[in-house]
Amino acid sequence: NAGVTQTPKFQVLKTGQSMTLQCAQDMNHEYMSWYRQDPGMGLRLIHYSVGAGITDQGEVPNGYNVSRSTTEDFPLRLLSAAPSQTSVYFCASSYSGTGTGNTIYFGEGSWLTVV
Amino acid sequence: AQSVTQPDIHITVSEGASLELRCNYSYGATPYLFWYVQSPGQGLQLLLKYFSGDTLVQGIKGFEAEFKRSQSSFNLRKPSVHWSDAAEYFCAVVDYKLSFGAGTTVTVRA
């Protein structure tokens, strides 16, 4: 059981470049989300999805796009990378909405540096 | 909206000593509360969670946490820390999303 898999683990981008962070889970979870982690700020929600075809914005959505064409995959796209997007990104999934208190599983993180 | 406060940014503790990490939450209804640990360069690992029932929750790695509604707190404790407990610890509360505290970094000295 692979759990939540994120790729790439490390990436360096130039300002203005675009890229996609991949996230896949094999637990048939409906709820998936992306967080970014910055020093002293904990983790902040970027976007989330409650099922295939359904996405919504979190706290810090600007500069990011998501889609959910399948239950398994939830890619995060940086449209035009900026230095402010240098961060560690975590994908998470759970069986259903987090409001039910279900355990949330995290990927191992993607370290992104924008120069 | 829910929020989580971890008052201590950094704690240093001697190996073998006890550890307590503070967490205060703001949430209108019965909260679902979590503690996660993150070792350097690693992802987040769930230590324990509270949904309802017994207010003293046991987790992995010898950690426990106590939910105190009257104080809006969910403090994490370990009676005797090991060098491998050096990490960053996050408290989180759940509504439609996880809201994390800013984290507490724990340093363990020999």
Tell me the CATH topology of chain B: Immunoglobulin-like
CATH architecture of chain B: Sandwich
Biggest sheet record of chain B = 6 strands, mixed
How would you sum up the global shape of chain B? globular
Distance between the termini of chain A: 36 Å
Oligomer, anyone?
heterodimer
Q: Specify the number of helices of chain B.
A: 0
Uncertain runs of chain B are: none
Strand content of chain A: over 45%
Number of strands of chain A: 11
Number of domains as seen in the coordinates of chain B:
1
Helix content of chain B: under 10%
The CATH superfamily title of chain B:
Immunoglobulins
User: What percent strand of chain B?
Assistant: over 45%
Q: Greatest interface and its residue counts?
A: A-B, 23 and 22 residues
Description:
The complex is a heterodimer of chains A (115) and B (110). By secondary structure, chain A is mainly β. Chain A has strands at residues 4-7, 10-13, 19-25, 31-37, 43-51, 54-57, 64-66, 76-78, 87-94, 105-106, 110-114. Chain A has no helices and eleven strands. In chain A, the strands form two sheets. In chain A, strands 2, 4, 5, 6, 9, 10 and 11 form a seven-stranded mixed beta sheet that branches. In chain A, strands 1-3-8-7 form a four-stranded antiparallel beta sheet, with no helix packed on it. In chain A, strand 4 (31-37) and strand 5 form a beta hairpin. The model of chain A has no long low-confidence stretch (mean pLDDT 90). Chain B is mostly beta strands and 110 residues long. Chain B has one domain: Sandwich (Immunoglobulin-like), CATH 2.60.40.10. In chain B, strands 2, 5, 6, 10, 11 and 12 form a six-stranded mixed beta sheet that branches. Chain B has a four-stranded antiparallel beta sheet with strand order 3-9-8-7, with no helix packed on it. Chain B has a two-stranded antiparallel ribbon with strand order 1-4. Classes of the chains: A mainly beta (115), B mainly beta (110).
